[in-house]
Amino acid sequence: MASNFRILIHQNDDNIHMKLMGDFDGSSAHELLNHLGKCCPKFATIFIHTDCLKRVIPFGLGVFKSKLNDLNTKHIRLVFTGENANQFSS
Question: Taking the domain 6-89, which CATH number applies?
């Protein structure tokens, strides 16, 4: 895992916000996916804020995108924000 990767999480109403910080690699992708897996059944919208990412490593992004379909995200809305948002949502 990237030693400097962290996820700050806070909730308001039916939404949850996840602020990604540090370097996003393969282990970081799994950590984010694990958090999403726990949150998906409980929240209508999950905001993932990417402004505090220093680097988005292509391998980590690939892991995230390939495994995201395995989660039950059909009934929630994932919203990516920040300067790296287009990398995650495309």
Answer: 3.30.750.24
**Can you list the pairs that 17-21 forms with residues at least 24 positions away whose Cβ atoms lie under 8 Å?**
17/46, 17/47, 17/49, 18/46, 18/47, 18/48, 18/49, 19/49, 19/51, 19/52, 20/48, 20/49, 20/50, 20/52, 20/53, 21/52, 21/53
What is this structure's pTM?
A: 0.89
Q: Kindly report, residue by residue over 10-47, the tens digit of the pLDDT.
A: 998 889 999 999 999 999 999 999 998 887 677 888 99
Token digits of residue 69? 């379909």
Domain boundaries, the chain: 6-89
